[in-house]
Specification:
This protein is mainly α. The chain has a domain at about 45-75. The chain has two helices and no strands. α1 (about 5-30) packs across α2 (about 45-80). Belongs to the small Tim family. GO terms for molecular function: metal ion binding. It is found in: Mitochondrion inner membrane.
């Protein structure tokens, strides 16, 4: 049976996404863009922005993986405590 996400949950998730997007954009902009004397984006500013975003994405992915690992360990510990899994040797 597939879980359906309510419209209010979708709106909440989208708002969270926009908040995160705006925060990352602002942080990378403040760190990378230094020259406002021209309309052109300098190569070093572009490179810095791309690097900033890549670091953020890698960090988010790593945190997500650790969070999943933690929950798997917690669920296994609870199941073992309840006697649902064979005890490790």
């Amino acid at each position: 049976m597939a879980m359906q996400v309510s419209e209010s949950d979708q709106i909440k998730q989208f708002k969270e996404f926009l908040g995160t997007y705006n925060k990352v954009t602002e942080n990378c902009f403040m760190d990378c863009v230094k020259d406002f004397t021209t309309r052109d984006v300098k190569p070093e500013e572009s490179s810095c922005s791309e690097s900033c975003l890549q670091k953020y994405l890698k960090m988010t992915q790593r945190i997500s993986m650790r969070f999943q690992e933690y929950h798997i360990q917690q669920n296994e510990a609870l199941a073992a405590k309840a006697g649902l899994l064979a005890q490790p040797r």
